[in-house]
Amino acid sequence: LRGLLTRTSVPRDVVDYIVYGTVIQEVKTSNVAREAALGAGFSDKTPAHTVTMACISSNQAMTTGVGMIAAGQCDVVVAGGVELMSDVPIRHSRKMRKTLLTLNRAKSLGQKLSLISKIRPDYFAPELPAVAEFSTSETMGHSADRLAAAFNVSRLEQDEYALRSHTLAKKAQDEGLLQDVVPFKVPGKETVTKDNGIRPSSLEQMGKLKPAFVKPYGTVTAANSSFLTDGASAMLIMSEEKALAMGYKPKAYLR
């Protein structure tokens, strides 16, 4: 968000609304759009909300912004997405959570000791997060494998497409075309100045990998699917009239 403000010089008070997409939410910052906006110096009078719709969340945030402009509710919207896969929230088991909440309400020492005595070793087993649907327990990797099977998309076709994607991304990066990346200092590590997820390989190397989801017959692998990473994005969305009135040259049109 700060990078967007620097790059565009858009005044903070011109932004009518901020909307962000995310997949795995952190309880402490469940409305991460609002927290990020305040952290970036936007007014507390600028409303913001967060949307979650699996891997299409940030796209949904953008289309929500376009819809608000089309409806005449806003003139200027900032939309984007954010994920922190390297620090996903890991919860206590339900038994442990229930015990701790009850313990918090216990008034006497006797009641507290009684509750503590009921804690068993299996209470400490953590609940690991999964990028999966609650209703079906299916991950998007499984969905992709089913889709590939339904439309007869071969493993080779997927590998070729992935190799093409990474190769073109590397070419664009080498030619200095990916200039929207904002350098970011990661605490304890070097400053990230470019997309580090661009990794061209070879069909031979990719062909050696085993299926990542549906084993042993699936076709989706670690090389031909997206990887889990950290990152954030922000885009400035306006009606064409508003953009031209403010002196901006549109980089893209959303219709």
Explain what you see.
- With 255 residues, the protein is an alpha/beta fold.
- Helix content is 36%, strand content 12%.
- It contains nine helices and six strands.
- Strands 2-1-3-6 form a four-stranded mixed sheet, with helices on both faces.
- The longest helix is centred in the middle third of the chain and has 20 residues.
Shape: globular
Number of helices: 9
Number of domains: 3
Side by side, the strands of the main sheet go 2-1-3-6
Please give the oligomerization state of what you see: single chain
Provide the gyration radius in Å.
23 Å
Number of strands: 6
Order of helices and strands: HEHEHEHHHHEEHEH
- By CATH, the architecture of the largest domain is named 3-Layer(aba) Sandwich
Percent in strands: 5-15%
Q: Which runs of at least 5 residues are low in confidence (pLDDT < 50)?
A: none
CATH topology of the largest domain: Peroxisomal Thiolase, Chain A, domain 1
Which class best fits the helix and strand makeup?
alpha/beta
Q: How far apart are the first and last residues' alpha carbons, in Å?
A: 24 Å
Q: In this structure, how is the largest beta sheet organized? A: 4 strands, mixed
Helicity range of the residues?
25-40%
Name of the top-level CATH class of the largest domain = Alpha Beta
Mean pLDDT: 93
The named CATH superfamily of the largest domain = Thiolase/Chalcone synthase
